[in-house]
Write a structure and sequence with these properties.
binds 5-S-methyl-1-O-phosphono-5-thio-D-ribulose; alpha/beta; 364 residues; 12 helices; 40% helix; globular; 16 strands; four-stranded mixed sheet; seven-stranded mixed sheet
């Protein structure tokens, strides 16, 4: 199974996704700052994958001798600890701050870091070994993510039919998660169940996650895939060449608005205009129900050079500036259903999404 990260002998290894599909290079990381840089520089990307990476980054923070810096630790988590434990907690808060700033839009990043801070506070209060507790939790999160994706895949596969041509955007596959994938997990599960589906992958400018990563994953699995330029998607839908759209998500607000890779919103508009279902597949760790709607989601802006340059060389005239939002917001009313590991939620999302958290593991 493809996984973008692994832990070996106290070192976090990341598959350098910037180099795929031409080279498979694994990079060793030993400090939280290196981990934050790797997340920011897109060595690893995809909301669940960066959350898991940060969870292991928090393990590295235990040994990192770095200065605690100026932190504003959460009193609840710090309360009642002796001075040595408080020092360790401060260091973890500093690592958390650095990691969380690396990419702001993915809900999974803050979710994983918060969870590790709670585990650390509990371990210190209970006199447990801090590093083992954090490592154990990171491994648990990784395994749960893969399991959840398989379950999500089975739920989502029921929405597809024999022969469906499914369009996807960016990469919401094994590389973007602990393994198996969310949107691609649904396609994998359908294919494994014997449905003869095929995939249409958008290139996904400017980072080419669709062209480089989605096609690479699907070819390895023997799932038929064809590539289109981003601007061709609506035309294919209009010609009747697409039966369903499935994307992942970076953050889903309480009302069901979805933040995902820039270019997702126009896909949803085109799908609506052509009567094609538009599905979003995402784990519960991507749901941010405290945020009322998409307007409150922070959208990452990246360097314009990702657009003005190609392989390090400027390809547009000097003096031209680029606007590089990494994500957009798809309004909930354009989303046919949200596929999660606890089942498929249909509108109205406010109620349906909240209920997911009240149900047990099998409450789909
Ligand atoms: O900029 P990226 O490559 O991190 O963007 C990734 C996406 O937009 C994915 O669709 C999303 O994170 C879900 S991945 C399961």
């Amino acid at each position: 199974m493809i996984t973008p990260l692994r832990w070996e002998n106290g070192v976090l290894w990341l598959l350098d996704q910037r180099k795929l599909p031409r080279e498979e290079v694994w990079l060793p990381l030993e400090t939280p700052r290196e981990v934050a840089d790797a997340i920011r520089d897109m060595v690893v990307r995809g909301a669940p994958a960066i959350g898991l990476t940060a969870a292991f980054g928090m393990v590295l923070a235990v040994r990192d001798g770095g200065d605690a810096g100026e932190t504003t630790p959460d009193e609840v988590l710090r309360g009642g600890l002796d001075a040595a434990s408080q020092g360790q907690m401060e260091r973890l808060f500093e690592a958390a701050r650095v990691l969380e700033m690396a990419r702001p839009t993915a809900a999974n990043l803050a979710w994983a870091i918060r969870r590790q801070l709670q585990v650390a506070a509990d371990a210190l209060a209970g006199d447990e070994d801090l590093e083992s507790a954090l490592l154990c939790e990171a491994r648990k999160m990784h395994a749960a993510d893969v399991d959840g994706n398989r379950t999500m895949g089975r739920h989502g596969a029921q929405l597809l039919r024999e022969g469906d041509r499914v369009l996807t955007h960016c990469n919401a596959g094994a590389l973007a998660t602990g393994g198996y994938g969310t949107a691609l997990g649904v396609m994998r599960a359908a294919f494994e169940a014997g449905l003869n589906i095929s995939v249409c992958a958008t290139e996904t400018r400017p980072y080419l996650q669709g062209a480089r990563l989605t096609t690479w994953e699907l070819v390895r699995d023997g799932i038929p895939v064809r590539l289109i330029v981003d601007g061709a998607a609506a035309f294919l839908m209009q010609r009747g060449e697409i039966d369903a759209v499935i994307t992942g998500a970076d953050r889903i607000a309480g009302n069901g608005d979805v933040a995902n890779k820039i270019g997702t919103y126009p896909l949803a508009l085109a799908a609506r205009d052509n009567d094609i279902p538009f599905y979003v597949a995402a784990p519960l760790s991507t749901l941010d129900l405290e945020i009322p709607d998409g307007e409150a989601i922070e959208i990452e802006r990246r360097s314009g050079e990702e657009i003005t340059h190609f392989r390090g060389e400027r390809v547009v005239p000097e003096m031209v500036e680029a606007i590089n939002y990494a994500f957009d917001i798809t309004p909930a009313e354009l989303v046919t259903a949200i596929i999660t590991e606890r089942g498929v939620v249909r509108p109205p999302y406010g109620e349906g999404l909240a209920q997911l958290f009240e149900e047990g593991e099998d409450g789909a």
